[in-house]
Amino acid sequence: MTGPYVAAALFCERVLQEGDGVLSAIRIVDQQVLHLIGANVPGDMPPAMLNTTLLIALKAGQTRGRYAVRIAPEAPSGEGMPPVDFAVNFMGGDGEQGINLVVPMQMQVAQEGLYWFDVVWVDPKVDPEAGALLTRVPLRVVYQPVATS
User: Fold this and answer.
1) Which domain holds residue 17?
2) I need a surface site. Which of 18, 74, 101, 141 has the fewest CB within 10 A?
3) pLDDT in tens, 80-94
4) What is the number of structural domains in the chain?
5) In sequence order, what are the beta bridge partners of 37?
6) Predicted pLDDT of residue 1
7) CA dist., res. 124 & res. 127, Å (int)
8) What gap in Å lies between CA 122 and CA 128, rounded to an integer?
């Protein structure tokens, strides 16, 4: 493959884009701690909503045209979660042209442990179901119950 190339793939609290187009990833994280406080908190993690942002920055290399980037999550159990595709278009340049995907994520998690998010390059002209793995981004979910009296 002669592109695209991964410049960055990470989770953060939010992404700022300044007027000149420069991005800033704020509070880069690889772990989310879910606290549950109360008199009768369960020992095992109940389902919870997770809010985070996934930033994927790609450089074209020799890639030109319309493609898709698929984000395919995997739960700690190894079970695949529903993937999401994002259309991208590399229009030209000398290979340094980039595409930044800023993906606000709100997802329900039901398991404590390590979640993986595969970043897959999909060429719909070849096979819209298959793709090439560009990278994997980890996110650990930690449950911390706090019992009060």
Assistant:
1) 5-147
2) 18
3) 999 999 999 988 777
4) 1
5) 146
6) 58
7) 5
8) 6
Q: If you ran DSSP here, which 8-state letter would residue 57 be given?
A: E
The torsion defined by the Cα of 36, 38, 43 and 44, in degrees rounded to 10, comes to: -40
Are β-strands 65-74 and 98-109 bridged in parallel, bridged antiparallel, or unpaired? unpaired
**What tokens were used for 132?**
């090439």
Q: Distance between CA atoms of 31 and 12, rounded to whole angstroms? A: 10
Query: Model confidence over 6-16: pLDDT tens digits?
Result: 999 999 999 99
Closest CA to 45 of 35, 53, 54: 35
Confidence (pLDDT) at 94: 73
For residue 121, give the CATH number of its domain.
Answer: 2.60.40.10
Q: pTM of the predicted model, to two decimals?
A: 0.90
| CB-side neighbour CA atoms (13 Å) of 74 | 12
Expressed in angstroms, the distance from the first to the final Cα of the chain is 59
